[in-house]
Amino acid sequence: MNGAILVLSGPSGAGKSTIIEHASDQIGEYYFSISTTTRPPREGELDGVDYYFVSREIFEEDIKAGQFLEYATVHNNYYGTSLKPVKEALSEGKLVIFDIDVQGHRLVQAKMGDFVTSAFITPPTLNELEKRLYARSTDNDTVIKNRIENAKKEIQAVNEFDFVIINDVVEIASSKFATIANASRLKKSAEELEKLVIHWQDGSK
Amino acid sequence: MNGAILVLSGPSGAGKSTIIEHASDQIGEYYFSISTTTRPPREGELDGVDYYFVSREIFEEDIKAGQFLEYATVHNNYYGTSLKPVKEALSEGKLVIFDIDVQGHRLVQAKMGDFVTSAFITPPTLNELEKRLYARSTDNDTVIKNRIENAKKEIQAVNEFDFVIINDVVEIASSKFATIANASRLKKSAEELEKLVIHWQDGSK
């Protein structure tokens, strides 16, 4: 079995975590990539679960050491994905799932495009997204308005993704996600293809 | 549901038809594209099942009328895929499966790339392919040697395909094929994505 990367993007409130949870028994072993950030933990957030919370100093050292697959600054805080756990999971043949934004997707494509399948997950309409964000009431109005403005920008990038999942009915969206995740495992990198052709011609089995 | 195209290529003897048959109850409704040819039917071959058998004159008229999605000349005979049944099946939301060669895949990609997912199916090694071709004894030595020379050329094009399926154990290969076929249905064309974004912004549901 080969490792593979599945990048999920889409507005906060699209239901990405719910979909992954729903599908988790259909998609085999996977590693959900946890981002590293310098922003302080919010109430209820746990280190190593929601994020790896680190200081600015450590984050900047890691940047210099080339330890990030991708990183960005949002509202003066760093957010990034460490390369090491991703490489480990890939070498163990796991499916690595990323929940990152459109910009992060571009960076991962640029660095590891060979392994990447990507899906954009969104509620059916902007109205529906607004409704869900207000209904879950975990964010204040300013944060929600910010999320909506971001969503309006991100939807313009759907054509950069291999798949788009409209999360209307969660069971349907989860089953689509599982299909995509399982197909993503079957993608072969250029390196694997080269080996395959050599082995094929060589004829030994 | 959206129509989609799944192109299968790979050497004769790779087990493509067996794999499709095995997976047929897992992949929903599909239309298996039947090629048109000017070569005479072999013993046991049926018109409308194995091929549409037509005269050279009719084939050339159809070329002029732009009725082929792709066509080629092999050993002085024409082989081609008519556009009409493919378009009909797509408009009915069916998955259209093609069994065509590497060159045919390029032509279909060029004309309808938006809808296309592709998989190269092959036995694990060249040796194994030879064994299978001799074992099934439907072809004479010259034909088999020809198929093997073709296979050696075609394997060089695996990197043009989205997926490669090694048909070692047919149950495993069929299950991989079903996963790929089901994922291919979820691919959206540029036109569909455009509509999706407009609908999303518009907000009506």
Report the uncertain regions of chain A.
Answer: none
CATH topology of the domain at 4-33 and 94-202 in chain A: Rossmann fold
Figure out the total of helices of chain A: 8
Secondary-structure element string of chain A? EHEEEHEEHEHEHHEHH
Give the strand content of chain A. 15-25%
The CATH H-level superfamily of the domain at 4-33 and 94-202 in chain A is P-loop containing nucleotide triphosphate hydrolases
**Shape verdict of chain A:** globular
Protein model, in words:
The first copy, chain A, has 205 residues and is of the alpha/beta class. Chain A has a domain at 4-33 and 94-202: 3-Layer(aba) Sandwich (Rossmann fold). Chain A contains 8 helices and 9 strands. Chain A has helices at 16-23, 56-64, 83-91, 102-112, 126-136, 141-154, 170-184, 190-202, and strands at 4-9, 30-32, 36-37, 52-53, 68-74, 77-82, 95-99, 116-122, 163-166. Chain A has a 5-stranded parallel β-sheet with strand order 2-7-1-8-9, sandwiched between helices. In chain A, strand 5 (68-74) and strand 6 form a beta hairpin. In chain A, helix 5 packs antiparallel against helix 6. The longest helix of chain A has 15 residues, at 170-184. Chain A starts with a strand and ends with a helix. The relative contact order of chain A is 0.22. The model of chain A has no long low-confidence stretch (mean pLDDT 91).
Short recap of the structure:
The structure is a homodimer of 205-residue chains. Chain A is an alpha/beta fold.
Task: Kindly list the characteristics that best describe this protein.
globular; homodimer; five-stranded parallel sheet; Rossmann fold; four-stranded mixed sheet; alpha/beta
